[in-house]
Amino acid sequence: MRLEDLNWMDVARYLEQDNRIILITGATEQHAHLSLLTDIQIPMRMALAAAEREHVLIAPPLNFGFSRSLAAFPGTISLTPRTFDLVVLEIIECLLHQGFRRFL
Fold first, then answer.
1. Segments in the chain forming alpha helices (H)
2. 22, 62 contact by CB (below 8 A)
3. Is 82 exposed, middle or buried (0-12, 13-18, 19+ CB in 10 A)?
4. Measured torsion, CA atoms of residues 9, 13, 15, 17, in degrees rounded to the nearest 10
5. Core-most of 32, 37, 38, 57, by most CB within 10 Å?
6. Could you tell me which of 37, 42, 34, 31 has the C-alpha nearest to residue 73?
7. 64: Cβ–Cβ under 8 A, 6 or more apart, which residues?
8. Mean of the pLDDT values across residues 13-21?
């Protein structure tokens, strides 16, 4: 199940039964002839397989990471390590407030 496919009432029902959520992070960066989102596509497919087997919810991926060394390549989007850490922390804090307790 993907969080973005649900409404808030669906999520509330999910939280009555389970408190797990999969968080995916990855960079939007060059990978030669491959997609700029290679770092998201691979873990997303793994998460979808795990979610189907374990009936766990997947949060929307955070498509940005620390890629300063690749910034010269068009399409690469990079955050500073501090910004990345703060964004991940705020996402987790928000989900904790809603009742999620186990982050995968």
1. 8-17, 38-54, 81-98
2. no
3. exposed
4. -170
5. 57
6. 31
7. 27, 28, 77, 78, 79, 84, 87
8. 98
Q: What are 37-71's pLDDT values in tens digits?
A: 999 999 999 999 999 999 999 999 999 999 988 88
Question: Which domains occur in the chain, in start order?
Answer: 3-103 (3.40.50.10310)
> 78 forms bridges with which residues in the sheet?
65
Whole-prediction pTM? 0.90
Sheet of 57-58, strand order: 57-58, 20-22, 102-103
Angstrom distance (rounded) from CA 65 to CA 76: 10
The tokens describing 79, both together, are 């955050």
Per the structure block, which two tokens stand in for 97? 């407030």
pLDDT band at 93 (very low <50, low <70, confident <90, very high): very high
